[in-house]
């Protein structure tokens, strides 16, 4: 068991005006203009109720007609988990085409993984009821299992392999260790990793996913690596926006401001202050200024603009999800991790690059 009730890799086995504000949770997420183990409650880190472990019974039909409705449901789930509704919700997410780009579907993939993790005994039934799914949408099952962190995730994946014949190569990659589950991925691999951890938080209300995000705050003042600066800014912005709408999360971050390493603790205190005073816009401006200054040094060396384009659209749901929590934002699509901040910055940097050619 990791420090402060969080889980480490061994414990686990093996992220436009109104939309921008709501999106904040994964909002600076991208460029700035843009669980876990569920066995039992994490000491001092879980708000999930006993209902989370209620048997799924039979999946009922959910008439989601738009991504907006999906996000509204996702946003309130952790307050009153209705596990039996999850399979239908996953089918609705697939039907609406929200899983076709795994790099932008992080929040949904993370959410299903969190539900599976929080319902270990019922996991096989939950997964079975999620079928049938088109091959291109079966990523929700694959990632839901692999990213759950359950000790038996390989067994579960093998158990459902025959129901996904078109994805055998993809599945073998995980079983052979050639593909990494979420808890083995680095945050600087892309915004979709950050989105996935937020998805797990929305599914469980537990704070281990938050503890996974906090290390990225060390990059909030990065002076050389634009990619890490952006990821660090995403983490800072999404934490601040979510905490301003979620008192329990705010209290948790306040406590972490005394327990994290010095450099990270300083950023956490800044987040807490901004959330308490509802002055998160100051963090946004500060982050944008840093990215602009770093941009002046030239484009990222490690990745091209394709990465930033992906980043700009990642987590088209988180910020919106958070916005719905208080009913203050008339959110729609898209916008979550990336959101306006990242998209705007990405477009700006690309135009600057084109002008130099």
Which features does this protein show?
357 residues, mainly alpha, 17 helices, 54% helix, globular, disordered N terminus
Structure description:
- With 357 residues, the chain is mainly α.
- The protein contains 17 helices and no strands.
- Helix 1 packs across helix 17, helix 4 (106-118) packs parallel to helix 9 and helix 13 crosses helix 14.
- The longest helix has 20 residues, at 226-245.
- The N and C termini lie far apart (53 Å).
- 54% of the residues are buried.
- Mean pLDDT is 73; it is low at 1-57 and 304-353.
Count of distinct strands: 0
What is the percent of helical residues? 40-55%
As residue ranges, the low-confidence spans are: 1-57, 304-353
Give the overall shape, derived from the CA principal axes: globular
Q: How would you spell out the order of helices and strands?
A: HHHHHHHHHHHHHHHHH
Q: In whole angstroms, how far apart are the ends?
A: 53 Å
Q: If helices are DSSP runs of H or I spanning 4 or more residues, what is the number of helices?
A: 17
State mean pLDDT (0 to 100 scale): 73
Structural class: mainly alpha
**What value does the Rg take, in angstroms?**
19 Å
Amount of beta strand: under 5%
The major pleated sheet works out as: none
């Amino acid at each position: 068991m990791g420090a402060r009730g969080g889980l480490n890799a061994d414990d686990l086995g093996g992220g436009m005006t109104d939309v921008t504000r709501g999106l904040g949770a994964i909002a600076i997420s991208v460029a700035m203009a843009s669980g876990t183990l569920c066995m039992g409650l994490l000491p001092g880190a879980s708000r999930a109720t006993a209902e989370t472990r209620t048997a799924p019974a039979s999946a009922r039909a959910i008439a989601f007609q738009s991504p907006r409705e999906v996000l509204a449901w996702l946003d309130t789930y952790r307050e009153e988990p209705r596990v039996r509704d999850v399979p239908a919700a996953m089918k609705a997410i697939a039907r609406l085409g929200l899983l076709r780009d795994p790099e932008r579907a992080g929040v949904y993939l993370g959410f299903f993984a969190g539900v599976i993790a929080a319902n270990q005994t019922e996991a096989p039934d939950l997964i079975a009821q999620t079928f049938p799914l088109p091959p291109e949408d079966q990523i929700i099952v694959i990632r839901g299992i692999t990213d759950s962190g359950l000790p038996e995730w390989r067994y579960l994946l093998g158990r459902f392999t025959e129901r996904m014949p078109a994805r055998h190569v993809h599945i073998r990659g995980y079983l052979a260790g050639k593909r990494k589950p979420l808890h083995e991925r680095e945050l600087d691999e892309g915004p979709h990793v950050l989105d996935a951890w937020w998805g797990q938080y929305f599914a469980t209300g537990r704070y281990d996913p938050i503890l996974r995000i906090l290390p990225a705050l060390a990059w909030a003042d990065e002076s050389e690596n634009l990619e890490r600066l952006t990821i660090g800014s995403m983490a800072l912005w999404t934490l601040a926006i979510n905490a301003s709408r979620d008192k329990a999360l705010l209290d948790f971050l306040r406590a972490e401001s005394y327990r994290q390493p010095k450099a990270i603790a300083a950023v956490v205190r800044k987040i807490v202050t901004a959330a308490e005073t509802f002055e998160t816009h100051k963090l946004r401006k500060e982050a944008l200024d840093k990215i602009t200054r770093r941009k002046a040094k030239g484009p990222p060396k490690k990745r091209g603009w394709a990465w930033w384009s992906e980043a700009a659209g990642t987590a088209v749901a988180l910020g919106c999800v958070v916005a719905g929590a208080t009913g203050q934002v008339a959110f729609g699509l898209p916008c979550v991790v990336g959101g306006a901040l990242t998209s705007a910055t990405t477009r700006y940097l690309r135009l600057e690059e084109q002008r130099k050619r």
